[in-house]
Specification:
Blueprint (H helix, E strand, L loop, with lengths): L4 E7 L3 E8 L12 E2 L2 E6 L2 E5 L2 E2 L2 E3 L17 E3 L1 H7 L6 E2 L2 H5 L24 H20 L7 E6 L5 H13 L5 E5 H13 L12 E7 L4 E11 L2 E9 L7 H18 L6 H20 L5 E7 L9 E7 H12 L30 H15 L11 E5 L6 H17 L6 E2 L8 H12 L7 E2 L5 E7 L12 E7 L7 E3 L6 E4 L3 E4 L1 E4 L10 E2 L8 E2 L3 E4 L10 E10 L5 E7 L9 E4 L6
Parallel strand pairs: 1-10, 10-11, 12-17, 14-19, 17-18
Antiparallel strand pairs: 1-2, 2-3, 2-6, 4-5, 7-8, 7-9, 12-13, 13-14, 15-16, 20-21, 20-25, 21-26, 22-29, 23-29, 24-28, 25-27, 29-30, 30-31
Helix pairs in contact: 3-4, 5-11, 6-7
Length: 601
């Protein structure tokens, strides 16, 4: 069945949203505007409301509670959305949050029941993949209830951070498939935000971006900070947009800021002789998030009350009370996370403790401005401008954190100061952005672009990818055999394309456990498929999560070394698929496949 709608879904750390464009009657006219769907969700027991934003929270009901029914499932024992977020401040051990951040954590089993972390054994736990599935399934159920046709029959564009690795992308698609969304395309969130800006601006966007301009997308959301640079290039008299740089995956965002506010309130309570246990601290963090959003969303509000249950009590009549003021929020957020720093400033690294609890790998340095300076400097070096910053001429803000005027002003002040030192003009702000809903709207618009309606942002892979090949060498005590990094996917390789790899004398070990090493680089942009690196500078290549696997012997002996040639492709969902094709196959079509970033087991 052909799709009637193209649907964009922003599966965010703190909010999820859906926008759609009706394809009926589209014809050859201008692209239609994306319509944001208001999604029914519980806001209190027995109270349903339809809202554009669905908080990315999941609450499991206590056995003593009544069912958390919805129109399509009256006996449901869990809630997704606003009510789940409310319960996070009252019963945090029963609430899953920040699942998206866990989805990209390579140090845990992302298919294992680990959320909520630290919850007692008598409370149901689920995996990050299942949490993502439940959010998407809620959207799918709401869509079916409203429109009478399955969401899985539509063309769905699902967004991910630009810095998501291949494994996190693959797991996101796995969650979508579980929710019945079989026709899924992935799109990077910063690109989606720019697509939304282009769609909202109409043809006037060309008045803001011209040949040679570089648009910096600063996306500070609930769980991550993403930087992307997109250049406007004129080719044969036609203006094109090309994504030229993507920053590292920085686990730094609104979650960190909520925790910082919670520590400040906790100190006030401590000064009053009131100590908090670990679960009260989690509840306080959720309460501070709600207070922060209220203070930043309503200029007339100067303070917001905070209340968390006392030990041994779930009643607010026996609650610990405090207050968060607008000055507190501004001081902690702006000065703590967006300090004015020199362009040479870099994020600080701290020595790691030998033993640590399993948790999210948050950025060690909370200063977003330091991470931004490092990104601009690194990308300038990649473009051959060593010693200078990449000079963005325009800035597009995205993400809930940058809704605060004080945050945007500080980021612009820092950028203007750095560029002035390099003799470049201050960047201008691209107008009309919607930090909350832009990603969903832009994803839906991209669905039209894929059908030939609208300007496409060229980009492909945000990194070049390499596989490690062990060189033969005599055994020497304490010396590992040298590794050659073979480029299998160059920077900017488009989804759905193959890389032509020149023939190499390679041997593949089959029938016994082996370990594949992979590397990525966001700065080596001129390497082509087949480039072999015997040495590289520190910071040029980052080693990715290895793949430990036993490739089937296929009728050969265990431990045989098979002469093979390599083939590589970037799949439609943005993962790297490496294939080893034997030069002398034992059966027709014999080959082994290894997918980058998918952890064994």
């Amino acid at each position: 069945m052909s799709a009637r709608w193209v649907v964009g879904i922003d599966l965010g750390t703190t909010h999820t949203a859906l926008a759609a464009i009706d394809l009926q009657g589209l014809g050859n006219g201008p692209a239609a505007a994306a319509e944001v769907m208001v999604v029914p969700q519980l806001i209190a027991p027995g109270t349903l409301d339809a809202r554009a934003l669905v908080p990315s929270f999941l609450y499991f009901a206590h056995p003593s509670e009544a069912a958390l029914g919805l129109p399509w499932d009256g006996a449901r024992r869990f809630a997704v959305g606003e009510y789940a977020r409310t319960r996070a401040a009252e019963s945090p051990a029963r609430v899953v949050s920040s699942a998206k951040s866990w989805l990209c954590h390579v140090g845990v089993d992302r298919r294992g029941p680990i959320l909520p972390p630290g919850a007692p054994d008598d409370i149901e736990k689920i995996s990050p993949v299942e949490a993502a599935f439940r959010y998407l399934d809620h959207l799918s159920e709401a869509w079916l209830a409203e429109r009478g046709v399955p969401l899985g029959e539509q063309d769905v564009v699902l967004t991910v951070p630009a810095s998501f690795d291949a494994a996190a992308r693959d797991l996101t698609v796995e969650a979508a498939y579980a929710a019945g969304l079989e026709n899924v395309t992935l799109l990077e969130e910063p690109q989606a935000a720019l697509y939304a800006w282009i769609a909202g601006s109409g043809e006037s966007w060309r008045a803001h971006l011209g040949p040679g301009d570089v648009a910096l997308v600063v996306d500070v959301g609930g769980g991550t900070t993403d930087f992307s640079a997109i250049e406007a290039v004129e080719r044969d008299g036609v203006l094109e947009l090309t994504r030229i740089a993507v920053g590292d995956h920085i686990l730094l965002g609104g979650d960190n800021m909520d925790l910082a506010l919670a520590h400040g309130v906790a100190q006030k309570l401590r000064d009053a002789g009131k100590e908090l246990d670990s679960w009260q601290m989690v509840a306080l963090t959720h309460s501070c998030r709600a207070a922060k959003e209220r203070l930043l969303g309503d200029a007339s509000v100067t303070s917001a009350p905070i209340a968390i249950a006392s030990r041994g009590s779930a009643l607010f009549g026996s609650a610990l009370r405090a207050e968060l003021t607008r000055d507190d929020v501004t001081r902690v957020l702006v000065d703590g996370f967006f300090p004015m720093v020199a362009e040479s400033a870099r994020p600080a690294a701290r020595a790691r403790v030998g033993l640590t609890q399993i948790g999210l790998p948050y950025a060690a340095d909370p200063a977003v401005t330091k991470h931004l300076a490092a990104f601009l400097s690194r990308q300038a070096g990649a473009g051959g401008r060593h010693g200078q910053l990449l000079h963005p001429s325009a800035v597009l803000f995205n993400g809930g954190v940058v809704k605060a005027e004080a945050v945007r002003a500080r980021l612009l002040d820092a950028l203007s100061h750095w560029l002035k030192e390099d003799g470049a003009p201050a960047p201008r702000v691209l107008p009309g952005a919607d930090p909350d809903l832009a990603v969903a709207r832009g994803a839906a618009h991209y669905g039209l672009v894929r059908r030939g309606k609208g300007l496409r942002i060229r980009g492909g892979t945000a990194r070049a990818y390499y596989v490690g090949i062990e060189s033969p060498a005599p055994a020497v005590p304490g010396v590992e055999p040298p590794i050659v990094a073979l480029c299998v996917a160059p920077f900017g390789m488009e989804e759905g394309t193959h890389a032509e790899l020149p023939a190499h004398e390679l041997g593949l070990v089959v029938g016994e456990p082996v370990r594949f090493r992979f590397f990525g680089s966001s700065v080596r942009r001129n390497d082509h498929a087949g480039t072999a690196l015997t040495r590289w500078q520190p910071g040029e290549l980052d080693e990715l999560a290895p793949i430990e696997i036993e490739l089937p012997a296929e009728g050969r002996r265990e431990g045989d070394v098979v002469a093979v040639e390599l083939a590589a492709q970037i799949t439609a969902v943005g993962t790297l698929l490496l294939e080893a094709v034997p030069r002398e196959p034992t059966t027709a079509g014999e080959r082994w496949k290894i997918e980058l970033g998918v952890r064994s087991g």
